[in-house]
Amino acid sequence: MKNDTTNVKEEVNKGSNKSSGPRRTLYKSTSKKIADVTIFTLLSIFSITMVLPFVWMISTSLKTPIQTRTSTPEWIPDPIVWTKYVEIWEKAPLLTGFMNSSIYAIVVLAFGTFFTALGAFAFSKLNFPGREKIFLGLLGTMMIPFPALMIPHYILFVNLGWIDSLLPLIVPAMLGNVFMMFFLRQFMNGISDEIIEAAKIDGSGYFGIFWKIMLPMIKPAIAAQVILWFMGIWNDYVGPLIYLHSPRNQTLPLMIANFNAFYEIQNDFPLIMAASLVSMIPLLVVFFAFQRYFVESMNYAGVKG
Amino acid sequence: MATQGLSRLNRKEKWIAFIFIFPLVLQFVLFLFGPLIYSFYISMTDWNIFGTATFIGFENYINMIQNDRFWRAMGNTAFYLLGIPIGLAISMVLAVWMNRGIPGITIFRFLIYLPVVSSIVAITILWQWMYNYEFGLINHLLNSVGINSVNWLNNRDWVKPAIIILGIWRGLGVSTIFYLAALQNIPKSLYEAAEIDGANFLQKFRHITAPLLTPMTFFLIVTGVINTMQIFVEIQIMTPAGGPGYSSASIVFYIWQEGFQYNALGYASAASWLLGLMIFVITIFNFAMQKKWVHQ
What we know:
The complex is a heterodimer of chains A (305) and B (296).
Chain A lengths: L1 H14 L6 H40 L3 H4 L15 H8 L2 H32 L5 H10 L6 H14 L6 H8 L3 H12 L3 H9 L4 H12 L1 H17 L2 H6 L8 H13 L4 H21 L1 H14 L1
Helix pairs in contact in A: 2-15, 4-15, 5-8, 5-9, 5-12, 5-14, 12-15, 12-16, 14-15
Chain B lengths: L1 H41 L16 H7 L2 H13 L2 H16 L6 H9 L6 H11 L6 H8 L14 H25 L4 H9 L4 H28 L4 H6 L12 H11 L3 H29 L3
Helix pairs in contact in B: 3-12, 4-8, 5-8, 8-10, 10-13, 12-13
């Protein structure tokens, strides 16, 4: 947002720059204007193309299956049928899916964020033997691809009797997130040690320093990371696919995928589109609500590599 | 008194630090490093979930490299990597266009980013419907410009491009925003100097923009390769059997099928170790090549 406005201002200033002479400015600004209009048009066409699938999704969800069997695309359904949005709740335990996904997300994010921040604090501000080695060891696990872990995890959870419950998804994840820990540590390294030393002299314990001083200071960094993590959890498909069998225990993505496999045979695409659309709402709400943090966090990740 | 209290506090520091990092270390032992080592052991056995495990050495690995479906999955995964340069080229152009300071950028950026924040499963299902042979949107649009319908997901030649197109559409938002951030870090003075020398748009792009974007391109290639090597969700949902003639199955799809559909846990572990090793070697290779083309 900010960058865009400054860019516009700079362009405006450049346009009225007198040092390059009046004729040159005139020539440059007309050719630049033509280029700008062309590019604006191209970007508009491209962005609209990018959104077309979503429009098609909404359009399909407001049709009857018969209305989808046309030879040319019908963008605005005639008539508009809302019944699929009622039907989806009757045809699958979607509400249970929402509940399961929410439990998964809330428990993991609550515990995981706490443990991750606590660990990052120790690696950034406390002295202990082997600090760098342990840190690098943890960081190294970011390179392990999930497929390499899914079979031993499966065997472990079969032996623990955790299959067909949310535990295999929740327990490993709630212990922390190494990528986020790395990110928060970088953030905390930028905070002066003096604040910590001063708090020590004032008689604060280490946990008090973490909770009362550090946590409030790194709130924006945590917010950005929690959003990314939430999206990861809400999108998780492979884990639930492996562990969750009975419909009442399934998370939303798995339920929607099974729903799709079942109704695709019957060509009930409006029903499938309605269910898929509804399943995305939490993600879109989070995105709209925290868009600022989100874009910021992308920028951070880009800069930090 | 005060210094004595402080040093006692410092001695305590070590133990408190260990408590603070305990959850992460526990995760490392129980769910990351431990399982990784255990999976290597399983990969040397003939274990399926029902029987007992017999140690068979490298037999799984030897069987694998003689398995036709494994090589098809490898070839398909390599094909999917083609989506990375295409996606990066498009997003670089988009970012350059969006960086001109024309109005409406916030909206363009938002629209292009929308697929990134949508549910992967929901989007895959949406594209499966769009690729529908008879009534899908894509064939409707192709027909309207006089091109015959393509049976996207049931055609050996088209199923992989179909999955690549979905991947590019879904990933453009991220790479465009990253490129945009990188472009805003390029000093304006470089372009002004080039303009004085009479450089045209293409020359500026070739000699200033593209070289200064190479660190970002490098980052996007490295992460893109790691992610694409693990492509699974799109394939499992759109082509539950791995496509006609196994033409869409990826390595992770193969691992999942062997491990969880056929219960060949030992064999699947071997395949997953091979995948992990490949990702590792390719990533190391990417970093080694970095000096040759990435602008420092």
